[in-house]
Each structure stands twice: as structure tokens, then as C-alpha cells.
Amino acid sequence: MKKFGSLEVWRVFGSCVGLHTGCAVRRNNTPVSGVDLMEMEGEPQRKRSRTSPSMKSFIPAAEKLKHNITVKGDLIFGLYPTLLSLQARKREFYNLYVKASKLQDESGLTTGVFGEILKLADEQGLKAQPVSSAQLRRLIKEEVHQGVAMDASPLAPVEVSRISASEMEVSTDRCPLWVLLDRIQDPMNFGAVLRSSYYFGVEKIFTVKDESCRLSPVVSKASSGALEVLDIYSLTSPEEFVTTLKKNGWTIAGTSADATCRNSCALHEASALLSQKHVLLIVGNEGKGVQPSISSLCDVNVFVGSAPGVLPTMGSLNVSVATGILLHELCRGRA
Questions:
Q1: pLDDT digits (tens, 9 = 90+) for 208-218
Q2: CA dist., res. 183 & res. 211, Å (int)
Q3: Global model pTM greater than 0.70
Q4: Looking at the structure, do residues 135 and 242 belong to the same domain, yes or no?
Q5: Strand, helix or coil for residue 77
Q6: Is residue 4 part of a domain?
Q7: CA-to-CA separations, 190 to 83, 84, 141, 248, 249, in angstroms, rounded
Q8: Which residue range or ranges hold the RNA 2-O ribose methyltransferase substrate binding domain (predicted)?
Q9: Average pLDDT, rounded, for the chain
């Protein structure tokens, strides 16, 4: 007999019989099947299916499920972060963990995103380790894992010294847009900004060393894997970096909540103003905005105007939402 809270169940020859009131086992007033009960116990569902001999090596028996898992590096999770990490090859890969039922689906082993993940992992000598859904939830701390997680070395920002002098000079054949994230702390905001930046063609991302959110698996998931492929640089002295770009002819565009900031400019005006220039867009901290020592160096401070009558407590946008709007407008004007 096993107990699940107030639920008592006898398991007889693989079937389940409820003891209370002589009825079938119920959960939240809904009948529970034998397969559902197995899930309640943390056991994976095992579907009967005909499989070719070539696919049997992918299909784990229950006793082959990995029980003791030690994470060596960062645990990347989700389909696209895992796929793009394998494609970018910026990390060292240790283990690939896959929900056991996904490995039992023969049709998915060679098609779609999951099939591509297995193919790339195999090319790099990485074998998929079957784990239960409950194990993945414990490893990922209840985050949405999509049945895939990968243990890999952490990512760190690249030192800004790696950028060549020619890249920082103004040229006539191209007008790049770079983004400086000034002390963004929330990993979900960080990831969302990276996703928008990649989508709109931002070439380089800069962060402030020791004062920014680390390049974590949560950031990678929130960015839908953009973290894995973008060039992200670390600045020890953002003021010095901004000053160098200004001397080289770049336009420095800060961001502000409203028109009260020095050199403020509405977004629709800034789009035309910045369309044919080398631009560094600076996005500020969630609570404090762009720090004064950097804001004072900006040629213009762009704001996204609100509708009339908006309550003061709702007078600004989330930093990731505002950045997405800014990038859309600035990139549209540069097309």
C-alpha cells in the first residue's frame, strides 16, 4: 500500500485499486489511471511501440535511468538554448540529459529541433542520458525544461580588448548598432533584451563588469538561446569605452523614462536622427536607469512616450519591453 497525501492505494499485479469508499482512485475529484499513478510516484510512462533494431540503443529501460546526477558546470535547459549552444561551440560539454519518454518516440529522434540536438551531440561525442521528468524538474528547479538539459561550462563575457581598433572606427560602408546594458540585474530582463537584440541585428552587446547579471542558464532560456550566439563583452570602465567611441565619431544614445532628461528626444524623432550613424544605445538599470557618469556622455537620451493620462505609478515600461520597442524603431529607420 502507498500513500499520496490522504490517498491510500493498493497496487495489485500492476493495477491500482482505491480503498476509500470502494471507488476508483481519484485525484482532484478526477479518476486516476494506472499510468497517471505511476507519474505520481515519479515513474516515467513507458509506451509500447514497435521500434527498429537501429533505434533500440536510444530507448532506455527503467533500470538504466540515471539516478545520481552531479552537475559539473552550468545546466542549460530548453530546446533552443541547447541547440544553439551545440551549434556555437563556445562551451565545453559534459553531459546531455533527456526526458526518457522523448527517447522512446522514434519519430522524434531524427527530426525537428530534438533530432538536430541528438545529431550535434553525437558529432561531439555526447551521449544522451535518459532521466525522468521528476529528475529534470529537480535539476532545473521547476523551470520549463522542454525535456532537455545539458551540463556545460559557464559562459563569460569577452574582454573588450578583443575588439579591434578598426571595428571601433567610423566607416562609410556600414552603420552598426551596438547596445550597452548598464547594470541590468534581472536574468529574465537580460535574456529578453538579448533575444530582441539578436532579432533586430545588433552586432555587439556590452555589460558592466561585476555589476550585471551573469550569463546564466536562465538568461539563455529567456533569450531563447540568443545568449549562445551573440558576442557579449565586459567593460571595466564603461565611461572610458563610451568616451573612446565618441572620439571616433560614434553617436551615443542613452535612454530615459520621459522628456525631463537632458538632451531628451522622442523615439520617432530619434529614429530619423540616428538612421545613418554608428550608434551605441545604452539601456539602464531596472530601478535606477543609466548611471549619471554615463548619461552625461550621451549625445541624445531617447524615451518612449506613453498615452495621455497614464498613472504616475505606471509611467515607465519594463526595460526589456522598452528596449524591444527602441530597437524595432531604430533598426527600421536604418533599413
A1: 998 899 999 99
A2: 5
A3: yes
A4: no
A5: strand
A6: no
A7: 20, 18, 19, 28, 28
A8: 75-158
A9: 82
